[in-house]
Amino acid sequence: MRMMKKIHHIIITLATILLFIFESNTVNAQVNDQAINRDKAPRVEIYDENNNLIKTINLEEKSIETDDPKTKSIIAEQTVTAQSVKKYSFGNTTFSNYVWINGGYYFYNPGIFEFELINRPEAVAVEVYKLGQVYTGKVVWRDVAGWAALDWRDTTLVKHPGSYAFRFKNDGSGTVQIKHGNLKYNY
Length: 187
What we know:
The protein is α+β, with helices and mostly antiparallel strands.
């Protein structure tokens, strides 16, 4: 009888140890999955004229990762009279390399920019050029579907007053399909 109690006690102890090990591995796996998913999370990356990453915005967490304290206050609303602001609307386009917005037209004092994706491309960029075809940087949306938006005034890529041209670029593989979008300017 004593032997049965010892065996029973040993079995319960082993079961408890195995349960603890299993739960510990499950927690570690969840932490690792979160880290992997963070790399695939929808996000916006802003690059300077040398293509150095200067800011990352995680669209799921709506957090900003930057070393520059000036850029931590992104998406600050600015008051502008409705009469002064103009809007350029563009329609459906599909591309595997790049396409200029409005054929490379220069928009004076650009502001809110938005577009709707039909597919979910790996990465779609919008390159920024000031007068004279001078590249000032780009914004890259990674793993984003549906609507994407940004206020150019909240980046360091455009400075007011000034005129800028914009070019969609496929920064991934395959094709990018855009349903439509808008660029507000003349702020």
